[in-house]
Amino acid sequence: MARQYKTLGDEIWKNRVEKINAELFTLTYGSIVAQLVKDYEDFADVNKQLEKMGYNIGTRLIEDFLARSSVGRCQDFRETGEMISKVGFKMFLNITPAVTNISADGREFSLVLDENPLAEFVELPDQAVVEEFWYSNILCGVLRGALEMVQMQVDAFFVTDMLRGDDTTEIRVKLIRYLEEEVPAGED
Amino acid sequence: MSSNASAASRLSVMSMAASLPSVGGYSSTASSIYPKRTTTNILERPLNKTRGTEVSVNAFAFLFSEMLQYTQKRVHGIQDLERKLNELGYRVGTRALDLLVWRDKNSKRETRVLGMLYFIHTTVWKTLFGKQADSLEKSTENEDEYMISDNDPIVSKFISVPKDVSQLNCGAFMAGVVEAIMDGCQFPSRVTAHTVPIDGFPLRTTILIKLDKEVLEREEQFR
């Protein structure tokens, strides 16, 4: 099952995606973060703002994802994790984080990124490390936004980050609940 | 010498942490207050690792649109928005210049205006946007104005501009990149972006580079 997602992800990346220079992307993201840090001064606020921006992106990114990959429903949350890492990340960022630490009830998993295109050329000041600043927090927002659009309320947060001196970069994704389809008010 | 510097910075953080009262919120992260800092010194990291790597256009488009939306909420007016975009592009440009010049090991530093513009038109555009810019022109009216045009800029590709802000040009971001590169190579100038649609290319953007007086004077001396 993981193998077919990997092939699908590779195939989409190769054929159905237009590509640009990753360094432009990296530098643009860095510029955005620098602007936010200048505007907010408090790293916790910057974290929140990045997550919010990511949420906005995620709500639209999911449509792009579904349109390009034309995959069906995932059977369980673990499959969702595989889909995100092998197809989703591959399609947009050309990386495949590993899915690890799946909890016993299958409602949590970790994504371990061995390379992070957002965080190249970056060095965090000591103040940022002390105040628990997650540089790539936009990714957590993207995950939350995208999954909410497919009826899953999740909590995504960074556990470790290589920019802070840890060995790995790990995002923990926890399923809170499945959302019910709601009929918009005014319709029968 | 670098290890001394990092040891000193570690010491300064630890003394700062020790003098802080344990406010709620800090106590839970007390163990991580002393940053481990096993990252390699940024100046020693390899720069060619990401050369040629790619991400999807969509990722960039989403990021750029979020950037626009964020900036829009904090400015009043189109000019201000363009200025902010210019600033954001400026940061990208300074770093891109460093990378490009470091990788382009064979060439000499550009001292002539035309050489500089040619460098931007070919090398910079090719690396950042995947193709050369579409034209490089000198203005006939003013001595100090040059124009670089791009028929299909990726930054504006997925942006739709509403009629009431029709003068906005997201190429201001590209203008910022060019301005940073010009400044970094000692060609101070004012750079702006304008949409000049022509047949078949409705999104054609022209980057107008207005060189400062001192650059023109210097150029005169070369003749």
UniProtKB/TrEMBL annotation, chain A:
Protein keywords: Endoplasmic reticulum, ER-Golgi transport, Golgi apparatus, Transport
Transmembrane segments: none
One Pfam family per UniProt: TRAPP
Compartments (UniProt record): Endoplasmic reticulum; Golgi apparatus, cis-Golgi network
InterPro entries assigned: Bet3, NO_sig/Golgi_transp_ligand-bd, TRAPP_component
A biological process from GO: macroautophagy
GO cellular component: endoplasmic reticulum; Golgi apparatus; TRAPP complex
Domain of life from the UniProt record: Eukaryota
Family assignment from sequence similarity: Belongs to the TRAPP small subunits family. BET3 subfamily.
Protein name: Trafficking protein particle complex subunit BET3
Lineage: Eukaryota, Fungi, Fungi incertae sedis, Mucoromycota, Mortierellomycotina
Automatic annotation (TrEMBL), chain B:
Principal subcellular localization: endoplasmic reticulum
Cross-referenced InterPro entries: NO_sig/Golgi_transp_ligand-bd, TRAPP-I_su5, TRAPP_component
Presence of keyword Transport: yes
Transmembrane spans: none
Annotated GO CC locations: endoplasmic reticulum; TRAPPI protein complex; TRAPPII protein complex; TRAPPIII protein complex
One Pfam family, short name: TRAPP
Subcellular location: Endoplasmic reticulum; Golgi apparatus, cis-Golgi network
One GO process term, biological-process aspect: endoplasmic reticulum to Golgi vesicle-mediated transport
Keyword line: Endoplasmic reticulum, ER-Golgi transport, Golgi apparatus, Transport
Keyword Transport: yes
Top-rank taxon: Eukaryota
Family: Belongs to the TRAPP small subunits family. BET3 subfamily.
Name of the protein described by the UniProt record: Trafficking protein particle complex subunit
Species this chain originates from: Lunasporangiospora selenospora
